[in-house]
Structure formats: structure tokens, C-alpha cells
């Protein structure tokens, strides 16, 4: 019998910690678009030297989240109007198709999906009531991911996942107003209702309405 203790999970490297800290700050909008952040400030926040911070920033620059300027620091790249339009257009195509597939499914499949969506809608309501924007945005994003995943198309699912970071950053920008959050909940409820009833046209229309409003709230093209 092997009585040796299980090995501990490997500790994250200094570069990984700097990367995670900085990326979370960008996506969570603690570092706003257009701001300049110095290597020294990040190093002090994370408790590492500047070398791993520099490596982390190079990774983030490759992802399009920062632009590096020698001796000045990292510019947090703002979300552009074109990026908003491109993401919303892709979401319209993917989510419009997948929600129709979901609503056209059999009764048992729709009921199972509706149960999962109901839980996420309740989590959004809880986030609003608690003033917890992070929880609200997480539940919002999971609501849409759940519908896309239900279509069972791995390629569409991978495409949708590739938008994850961009969507999160944009959704944080559009989830600072309680009235908008309440409207968001009502629109998700309409999507859920159409899926539960099995009316594909209504489900697609509800998604279009929701994404049109989402685009308008973050400065995109209607």
C-alpha cells in the first residue's frame, strides 16, 4: 500500500500570477481602457519583480488587451466600436441559430434546458438584489453559453468560447446601471419562456431584441 502523501498542486509561476492579476483587472475594468499601467505598479500589487510582469504583459499584448510603450508602461487598449460591432454580429449569428435549435427540440430536452436556464436567471436576480455585478455578469454569460452548448455543435461552441474575454469586458461595461440590469433580466426571461414553450421564432426574436439592446448599451451598431 502506498502511504505517501499526495503531491501538492504546482504553484503558479510569478509570470502566471502577474498575467492573471493584470488580465482580471482589465476584464473587470479595474484598469480602464486608455489608462497607462506601469510594470512597477503591477509588480508591487502582485508581489513579484518586474521581469515576470514584463513577460505577462507581452502575453497580454499578443491577446490585444494591452499595447506596450518602453519606459512608459502598458496602455490598456480600449474596447473599440468596431470590436463591439464584430462581437455582437457574431453573437447574433451564433445565438440566433442555437436558440432556434433549442426551442425546436423535444419536450424532455427543452424542459432540462429550461431548468438550467431558470437557475441562471435566478442567479442574475440575486446578483442584482445584492449589487454584485460580477455575479450578475457571470450568470448572464452562463445563460447564453448554456443555450449555445445545447445545440451540440462543437465548432460553434468553440467559436463562441473564443469570444469569452471580449464579451466579459463588454458586459461589465453594460452592467453598471440597475435599470439596464432589470431590463436584461426581463429579456432573458422572454428567451427562457420561448424555449420552454418550444416556439423557435419567438426564441430567435427574443434573442434579437436582447442583443439589439445590448449593442445600444455599450455603444455598438443597432
Outline the structure in words:
A three-stranded antiparallel sheet has the order 1-3-2. The chain has ten helices and three strands; from the N terminus they run αβααββααααααα. It is 71% helix and 5% strand. The chain is elongated and about 60 Å long. The protein has 222 residues and is mainly alpha-helical. Helix 2 (39-46) crosses helix 3 (50-62). It has helices at residues 14-27, 39-46, 50-62, 81-103, 107-130, 133-150, 154-162, 164-173, 178-197, 200-217; strands at residues 36-37, 66-69, 73-76. The chain folds into two domains: 14-76, Winged helix-like DNA-binding domain superfamily/Winged helix DNA-binding domain (Arc Repressor Mutant, subunit A, Orthogonal Bundle); 81-217, Up-down Bundle (Four Helix Bundle (Hemerythrin (Met), subunit A)), CATH 1.20.120. The termini are far apart. Strand 2 (66-69) and strand 3 (73-76) form a beta hairpin. Pfam families: FCD, GntR. GO terms for molecular function: DNA binding; DNA-binding transcription factor activity. Keywords: DNA-binding, Transcription, Transcription regulation. This is DNA-binding GntR family transcriptional regulator. Residues 12-79 form the HTH gntR-type domain.
Amino acid at each position: 500500500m502506498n502511504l505517501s502523501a499526495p503531491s501538492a498542486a504546482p504553484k503558479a509561476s510569478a509570470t502566471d500570477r502577474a498575467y492573471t492579476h493584470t488580465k482580471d483587472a482589465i476584464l473587470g475594468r479595474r484598469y480602464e481602457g486608455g489608462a497607462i499601467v506601469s510594470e512597477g505598479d503591477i509588480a508591487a500589487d502582485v508581489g513579484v519583480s518586474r521581469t515576470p510582469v514584463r513577460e505577462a504583459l507581452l502575453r497580454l499584448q499578443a491577446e490585444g488587451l494591452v499595447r506596450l510603450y518602453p519606459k512608459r508602461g502598458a496602455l490598456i487598449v480600449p474596447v473599440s466600436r468596431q470590436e463591439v460591432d464584430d462581437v455582437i454580429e457574431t453573437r447574433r449569428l451564433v445565438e440566433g441559430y442555437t436558440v432556434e435549435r433549442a426551442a425546436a427540440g423535444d419536450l424532455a430536452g427543452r424542459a432540462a434546458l429550461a431548468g438550467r436556464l431558470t437557475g441562471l436567471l435566478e442567479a442574475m436576480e440575486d446578483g442584482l438584489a445584492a449589487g454584485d455585478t460580477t455575479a450578475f455578469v457571470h450568470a448572464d454569460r452562463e445563460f447564453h453559453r448554456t443555450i449555445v452548448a445545447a445545440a451540440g455543435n462543437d465548432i460553434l461552441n468553440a467559436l463562441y468560447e473564443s469570444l469569452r474575454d471580449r464579451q466579459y469586458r463588454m458586459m461589465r461595461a453594460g452592467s453598471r446601471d440597475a435599470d439596464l440590469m432589470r431590463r436584461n433580466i426581463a429579456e432573458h426571461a422572454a428567451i427562457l419562456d420561448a424555449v420552454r414553450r418550444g416556439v423557435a421564432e419567438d426564441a430567435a426574436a427574443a434573442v434579437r431584441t436582447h442583443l439589439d439592446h445590448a449593442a445600444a448599451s455599450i455603444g455598438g451598431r443597432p
